[in-house]
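note to self: dont lose this again. the chain is below, predicted strucutre after it. 131 aa total, dont forget to put it in the shared folder this time
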Amino acid sequence: MDLDAVPQEGNATLAGHSKLMYARDAQGRVVTTTSKGWEAEEIVTSHAVDVLVEQAQEAKARVKAGLASPLEYWMYERRMDVALLSQTSGFWQWRVRRHLLPRHFAALSPAQLARYGQALGLPVSTLQGLP
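---
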């Protein structure tokens, strides 16, 4: 992208901040510049956030029905999926999926709960329940 073509339309999801982008200057060199974003990016980001909010609501209903652990709700509420929670917590993905089941979540040790709590930015007491 050329330096003068970097979008500056604005993006509400950036909350007034700018982001760093790479562009080519007049001499053809790659340089960094800031962008306020563009409408298409805002639409896509808003849609992705809406999907995560919906997933969190569905997970909350599953937790209340006893079909899922609170970990599933908090994972979506914190805008994560299994892969990202796996990376941030250090658990293998198959173990994260297993811990989304109530009986396996209930068997987690305090150290394992603390790892999830740290990855999600929550105290363990909050992680073990719903808001």
